[in-house]
Amino acid sequence: MAALQAKAGNRAVTTAIQRATVTSPGPETTDEVRASSSRTPEAAASSASGQAQGEQQQDDAARRKQAAEDEAKDLKKQAGTAALTRADAEAQMWRKTGVAAAARKEATAAEGEAVKSRDKTDAAERQRAEAEGRERDWAVQVEEAEKARSAAVTTVSDRTGDETAAGKRQAEAREGLADAEAEVQRCTEEADTAAKELAAVEAEVERRRKKAEATAKELADAEAEVERCTKESDDAVEAHRRAEASLEALASAEDEAQKQAKQAAEAAHAAVETWATAVTAAKEQVVDLQRKAEKRQGKVEAEEDRQREAEAAVRERAGAVTSAEKEVDDAQDVLRKRSDEFAAATRAREDAETTLTTREETKAAAEQQVSRAAADRERQENAKAAAQQEVARFEATASAHRRVEKDAREAAGAAARVRQQAGQDEAAAREGATEATKRAGEAAGQTEQTEQTAEPEKPGRLKRFSKAFGFTNLKKMGDPGDTVILRGTAPSGAAARAAASDAHRAPAFGTPSQQVFESSHNFGITALGLGNDSRGLVSALKTPKDTQGSAAHQADKDKKGKSAGVLTNATMLAGDGMKVGGGAATKSGIVEGVTAAGEGVGVTTGLFSVGIGAREGRAIHLTSQKRDALKKHALKDVEAVRTRTLQVVLDRLGAVNAELVDKAAAESGSEAGPTAEQIDSLDRSRAEVASLRTELREHLASAQQYAIHKQDNKIIKRAVSLGGNVVRTAGGILVVITLAGTLATPAAPAVGATGAAVLGGLAAYKGGKGGYKRAESVRHPDKWRRTTMAQGDTEFTEAGEEQKGSGWRAALEAVKVTKSIEQGERQLRAQEIYALAAGPAVPVGRNVPEDIRAEARGLLLDLKCDPARRNENAKEWSDSLNDPERQEDWEKYIAKQLAS
Q1: Cα(705)–Cα(600) distance, rounded to whole angstroms?
Q2: pLDDT (0 to 100) of residue 817
């Protein structure tokens, strides 16, 4: 790395020397040198001693030049070191001013909280005193309530005694009443019993009277029956007498009449006997009934005696009941009186108890108020203690933050002073390097003049011709025609030949002569591509292993890409040669040659298509990884926009940082601490720096999104190319199969035409896009103008009004396929990415903050601009980004990595 820096420094010094030599007069003019070279040998011999003296002077000049170059190199290194120190000090100053601002904010907040806590302490003390006063007042009320409660307790005790005595008297009256009621109950029960006995006797008398009456009735009936039977008996006797008289009267009558009279007399006699018996029986019944009636009458009389006795007992028991009821009434009167006395005593006792309860509640309420007041007092005491602790804590916190603020201000001031000193050292080193370079140029004037005049220069036209018509440009100029043939005329010619062959007539398009011409053009362009890839591969293989930087990365890429290109172009070249041979064989009528050439073309087409497809697949895989890494590390906390010119933002950030440095240095130098105006001024500067830092990160986010977009485009293009080559491989295989006779359909030309259309469309898109960009670079030359300082610039000028190019010039520029766009969007994005990632020793990266520079370098790693691919270690990689003379190399390198 040091060697490369030395080489780069030497190249810059040499350039300066050459410029100095051209602009300043040397000891000899060119004409004098030419004249000295045309002198005769004799004159040269006579001036040998003068030549030796001149050589001595040249050696001295060379030593002075080398010393000046070494001094310039050392001073540049010192300038780079001072720039790093300045950037580190600036970053330290930014961090420490941030810490101081945060600590100041925290300290102010803590002091405010301490004031609030003191207010809380005072309020708690006031409330504590109030609570203590309430506690004393309620304690007095508790004492008074206790006295009243004691009196109420005595009253309750007295009233309870009265109530107890009244209760005893009431109980005695209740017992007397109970005894009287029991006596009434007993007498009532006895009266009831007597009444029941009287009722039973009366019922028995009634029953027996009814039986006597029944017996009397039966006796009357029996007597009536006796009388009737007697009458009937008398009638029967009378009838018997008349019958006997009739019998006696009929004694002289006929026998029959006698017989009837006799029967009638017998019947009457029988009736007399019957009625005599009935009379006797009736009389006996009457006698029985008379005895029975007498007996029953006696029982009735006896029962009537009992009834009278029962009635007397009932009357006696009724008198006893009346007397007992009177005693009950008297006992009830006594009980009512005693109950009234007891109720009065109870009410008096309840009133006393109510009064006692009221006194107790009053006391409890007073005690509760005392407890509340005491709790409130204790709570306010605790609140006061807590507030005092908060005051102490917040004061301690504020004091700690003030110490942090002071330390941070001192550290920021120290960093600011270091930054100022480093800036002065950097400026002095750069000025010294410029002076040393100037002295080296002056010292090299004599030694370089002779060599410059002695070297023959190539004519300008020859240089321009060799550049315009070199292998690379010839390949570019031939590529459009090659694309038209491969993707247009050749596939359509093959289809026309196939159609003509099916119709058994000569083709009107795609004739053998046309085929030979087209294939020859393809052969030539492929040969140029093979030559270019071979030269690139050889150059890459010759690159020394210790090569570093973009050259090392490019050499590694060329070893892979150019070797694959050599193989692919060699295969394509063989196929194009077979096409030429096949066309010639067709013209000569050699059928076998045509078939063999066709099979060879099909095989080579399949081979190089497979190779290109594999390369495209690998490119898609690697690009996807690259895109995923970019997306993973994309900035999400800022918007991806570019609102202002990047260099304007950087310059303003540098100016504000310088103001911030001066303010931080002045603030830390004050013993009394910063004033409010100084704090406000510093905070305003920090706020503007923060806003500018956000703008830088927005630029970086925009660059990240652009890089992701480019990778997406690359994946799409590669995928289309992969698909076209897959189709083209299938077409080559079908060509071989068709020529072998196993397939008679026109599938091979159709598939080939499809692949050609896909690849031709991709080529047309690329060519059209390139032409559009070239036309835009003329039509709108300031559209993608640099927004940062270029290598060697010390100032940046904003673009003025855009001068648009003419339409015909833009159209002419669009068809210049050999010309690359020097300043497009990709180059602009690469320049902005480098500006944000460059070290502080590079003018364009002088004002970039360290953290944003680290993020930008992270983007470089995602773009595969990492140290490993550049054959560098981390320090060498960082040093290369901090080298002002490598700015152009880095910008071109980043632009290549952004390419799609």
Answers
A1: 47
A2: 65
Mean pLDDT for the chain? 75
pLDDT reported for residue 705: 93
Distance in angstroms (rounded) separating the CA atoms of residues 884 and 319: 150
Return the pLDDT at 234: 77
What number of other Cβ atoms are within 10 A of residue 832's Cβ? Answer: 27
d(CA 452, CA 14): 12
Helices 825-837 & 676-739, crossing angle to 10 degrees? 130
Instruction: State which amino acid sits at residue 608.
Output: F
**pLDDT per residue over 126-145, tens digit each?**
888 888 888 888 888 888 88
pLDDT at 42: 45
Render pLDDT for 698-720 as a digit per residue (tens, 0 to 9): 999 999 999 999 999 999 988 88
**Distance in angstroms (rounded) separating the CA atoms of residues 561 and 887:** 26
Q: How many residues in total does the chain contain?
A: 900
Q: Are 429 and 78 in contact (CB under 8 A)?
A: yes
In the structure, what pLDDT confidence band is assigned to residue 512 with cuts at 50, 70 and 90? low
CB atoms within 10 A of CB 104: 21
347-354: list long-range contacts, CB under 8 Å, 24+ apart.
Answer: 348/159, 348/162, 348/163, 349/156, 349/159, 349/160, 349/162, 349/163, 351/159, 352/152, 352/155, 352/156, 352/158, 352/159, 352/160, 353/156, 353/159
Listed in order, strand segments (DSSP E) in 309-389 are none
Q: Is 737 exposed, middle or buried (0-12, 13-18, 19+ CB in 10 A)?
A: middle
Listed in sequence order, the DSSP H helices in 589-675 are 591-632, 646-668
From the number of C-beta atoms within 10 Å of its C-beta (0-12, 13-18, 19+), residue 824 rates as middle
pTM: predicted TM-score of the whole model, two decimal places: 0.59
